[in-house]
Structures are given as C-alpha cells and as structure tokens.
Amino acid sequence: MERERTRKRPRLAWDVAPPSVSEAQRALPVPGDEEFERKHVSPPKRDDDREGHYVFNLGENLTPRYKILSKMGEGTFGRVLECWDRQTREYVAIKVVRSIRKYRDAAMLEIDVLQQLAKNNRGSSRCVQIRNWFDYRSHVCIVFERLGPSLFDFLKRNKYCPFPVDLVREFGRQLLESVAYMHELRLIHTDLKPENILLVSSEYVKLPSYKRVSSDETQFRCLPKSSAIKLIDFGSTTYDNQNHSSIVSTRHYRAPEIILGLGWSYPCDLWSVGCILIELCSGEALFQTHENLEHLAMMERVLGSIPELMIRRSNFVLDTTRVAAFQDIVSRNVDSSRSSLTDLLHGLLTYDPTKRLTACQALDHIFFRNPT
C-alpha cells in the first residue's frame, strides 16, 4: 500500500531515456541563422492560471534561448521544465516560479544561496549547480543542470525495496559532504529528504529480486548505474544568523527540538540525514505521521525516552515509558555493517541537538572509514 507523502516536486517518467544530444542537435537550426531568429521566438503572451503558474505548451520557447521539452515536476513554488538550451547546446532544468509576490521573494533568496554555493564550490559540494536566472513575464526562472531521478523516485519505482547497504553508504557520504559544505558557509538546508536528493544520471540496471511472483516468474528491481548524487531545493535554506521560523522541515524528517518549540540550528539537518539513511535501508519512512504528539510518541518507541529537560522546556505532556526498538529496524534490513551503521544512526538521531553528531564527525565515523 503506497504511503502518503507530502511531495513538493513529483517527477515524471524517470526511467524513460531522453533523446541523445546528437538527435536534438540535428533537429535544431544553428543559433544566429535567419531561420533560427524567425522560428525561435517567444510564444504569444498568455494569462497565468488561477494559481499563478506559467501556462505553456510543449515545444514552445521560454525566451528564444530555451525550448520546452517536458514538465519534470510541479510544487507549491511553481513548475520545473526540461528545456534545450540553444546557446550551450545542452539539456537543462528550469524552475519557473509562480507569479505571486511571496514565491518571487523566496526565489530571489534561493538564487542568493545558490550563488553562494557556486561561488565557494571547491568541486565536491554535491549541490545542484545554478546555470543562469532571469525574469520572464513576471516569473522568476532559475536554470539548473539537468539531473536524474530523486532517491524517492527510485524507491517508489522499486515498490519501496531498500537500497543495498553499500549504496546507502555512498549516498550517505555524499549527502554528509554537501551538508558539511553548507554548514561551513553558515547555511542550514532545513528540508533534507529523499525527494531533494537527485541522482546525477538516469541510467539504471535491472537485477533479479529475491522475491518470486511464481515458480517460473522472477521479479526485478532497478539499481542506479552510478551512485553520484546532488542535493537540490534550497528554497527553505536559512543563514544561521537569520531569524528562524518556528517550523521547518518536512514532517517525517523534522527534528524533536523543532516539534517541541525549543529552537533549531545546524543539528536539525543531521537528524534529517539519520531519518533518510534509515529510509534508504528499510524502504519506509521511520516516522510516518502527521501529528506532533504521535510523532514524539513514535520517536520514543524507537529511540527511548526524550530527555526530561527537553520535555520540561516545552509544553508537551508525554508518556515516557516506551521501549526502544531502534536496533531491530536496522537488523531487519541490513546484514553487513549492522553494528557500525546502528552506531552512526544513534549519533545522528540523538535527541539533544548539542550532543548530536556534526556532519564532519559523521563523515569520520567507522561506517564510512571501514566499510567491511
């Protein structure tokens, strides 16, 4: 049964290979030709839809430079379009923000963050790269490198069959590298989740699954050919010295200090990383709930009692007699590296944010240093 998830950016048909660049190039005239200038102009001006989304048709242009090939996703912010960049002759993903003031303002803040990430990039930030941005018919448009499917897409495609632990190790290392990079720049992502972690490539292989549908029929599951990933969606990213909103993070990945109203900082990202790693190992979100008290009770069932001091500082009344079952979750899904992975997850999912592992400490954990 498919679980309910709040998904800001659903992606479509991730396993359909795009046309090759050579085919696309043959179909397009050379920029600078009279034919190009005559044919590749912006479409007639249209009104936005009722919610402020840009209205388009496939095959049209988003400015003469970009040809719209497909819609990759849609969220509260707007839409993501796959486009062909006629100037650089490459595929790109363009985030077309709704023509509403609060979303336009948020997009400008995101552009500032993206430019900071790009400016300080030393080649291993694991953060999506901004190519360009422009304002088009009251829509802020942010041009990104085109990437593959999200890790959530992959889980869903495999009917929530977990990733092998060696692949989870590679995903975890890269995710922590991107978080460490952001924290070094005094940036807090605040919305880490499998939907916001994209594979660089869409290529995958099909492997037989352990489950059989019948005696003569074997199930298959897909695995990415490359483990390279990049972090996306910096629309909620906050500088540490900025005023912090009271609630951040998507529910399933929200740290206890946020729920308890105790304030938050860098450690909230590390709690989210811990939740993500368990989900990649088990195929299921650790805390599938939509309500605060139930969320905290689920934490206690898995991780033991929340420290009394944290409870006293909040306005919550909890039953603190739960039995921890955290190790069982890992043991059911991970055969090798069980002990070191469990220890890493305990460090990431520590209630007290002051005692939680930092991104750099997590990267130095034995789970990453000694994979055997």
Describe the structure.
It is a single chain. With 372 residues, the protein is of the alpha+beta class. It has 2 domains: 25-145, Phosphorylase Kinase, domain 1; 151-369, Orthogonal Bundle (Transferase(Phosphotransferase), domain 1), CATH 1.10.510.10. It contains 13 helices and 12 strands. The strands form 4 sheets. Strands 1-2-3-4-6-5 form a 6-stranded antiparallel beta sheet, with helices on one face. A two-stranded antiparallel ribbon has the order 7-12.
Cα separation of the termini: 35 Å
> What is the class of the largest domain in the CATH system?
Mainly Alpha
Helix/sheet category:
alpha+beta
* General shape: globular
Any idea what the CATH superfamily of the largest domain is called? Transferase(Phosphotransferase) domain 1
Name the helicity range: 25-40%
Provide the domain count: 2
Number of strands: 12
Put simply, the count of helices is 13
**Low-pLDDT segments, ≥5 res:** 8-34
Mean pLDDT: 85
Tell me the layout of helices and strands.
Layout: H1 21-27, H2 34-39, E1 61-62, E2 66-74, E3 78-85, E4 90-97, H3 101-119, E5 130-136, E6 139-145, H4 151-157, H5 165-184, E7 187-188, E8 197-199, E9 204-214, E10 217-224, E11 229-231, E12 238-239, H6 256-259, H7 267-282, H8 292-303, H9 308-313, H10 326-333, H11 338-348, H12 359-363, H13 366-369
Antiparallel strand pairs: 1-2, 2-3, 3-4, 4-6, 5-6, 7-12, 8-11, 9-10
